[in-house]
Amino acid sequence: MSDAEMLFRIASLNAAYAAAIDDDRLEEWPDFFIDDCLYKITSAENLRDGNEAGIVYADSRAMLADRVLALRRANIYERQAYRHIIGASRLTASDGTDISAETPFLVVRTMRDGQLDLFVAGRYRDRLRDGAGKLRFVERVVICDSSHFDTLVAIPL
User: Fold this and answer.
1) Distance between CA atoms of 72 and 24, rounded to whole angstroms?
2) At 79, which CATH number?
3) Phi, psi (5° rounding) for residue 48?
4) How far apart are CA 33 and CA 17, in angstroms?
5) Structural domain boundaries enclosing 115
6) Contact 139/127 with Cβ under 8 angstroms?
7) Is 115 helix (H, G, I), strand (E, B) or coil?
8) Which range is least confidently modeled, 1-15, 27-41, 142-156?
9) What is the pLDDT averaged over residues 85-89?
10) Measured distance CA(73)–CA(75) in Å, rounded
């Protein structure tokens, strides 16, 4: 497969991923990952300093599903909606099994009262795997440009 074809597939995956979150179809979110995956939200500063902990951390698709269930049934947070603006991906590596890519993003957040703000800017650092013609995330590290996080990071980025 050519790089252009792979970049198109990654762009399609990112568009579907963002639409599932932005359209409040969070139950679909774990399906973008393989069973034994990693999802982490961290800052560029933490990454640069070698700090492995993230403000959100899940190491399996089951943990992602549990997070969605908690959002729906247990967590209390102000109603809000996201709108992702996804940039062009660039391939960073391929080992024959997995493909690595980085993709810049912005998320605009709309609060219940209609207030809009630029919620977060950063990049996705992804490792992806093609299984049976379907591209999925093995690892998605959400690297936020700012190390200041709003306490309302409830919905996945």
Assistant:
1) 11
2) 3.10.450.50
3) -60, -35
4) 10
5) 3-144
6) yes
7) coil
8) 142-156
9) 98
10) 6
68: in domain: yes
Whether residue 10 is contained in a domain is answered as yes
Judge whether 149 lies within some domain.
Answer: no
**Total of domains in the chain:** 1
pLDDT band, very low/low/confident/very high, at 152 (cuts 50, 70, 90) = low
CA separation for the pair 32, 54 (Å, rounded) = 20
Phi, psi of 122, rounded to the nearest 5 degrees:
175, -150
| Token pair of 19 as six digits | 């639409």
Task: Please give the single-letter amino acid code of residue 35.
Answer: D
Question: Has residue 154 been placed in a domain?
Answer: no
Amino acid code (one letter) for 105: F
| Angstrom distance (rounded) from CA 112 to CA 3 | 41
Q: Please, are residues 109 and 119 in contact by the beta-carbon 8 Å criterion? A: yes
Within the chain, residue ranges assigned H as helices are 3-22, 44-48, 61-73
**Which tokens belong to 82?**
């996201």
Q: What is residue 133's DSSP assignment?
A: T
What are the structure tokens assigned to 69, written together?
């269930």
The DSSP call for residue 127 is E
How much is the pTM? 0.93
Helix (H, G, I), strand (E, B) or coil at 124: strand
The alpha carbons of the chain give a radius of gyration, in whole angstroms, of: 15
CA distance 87 to 64: 24
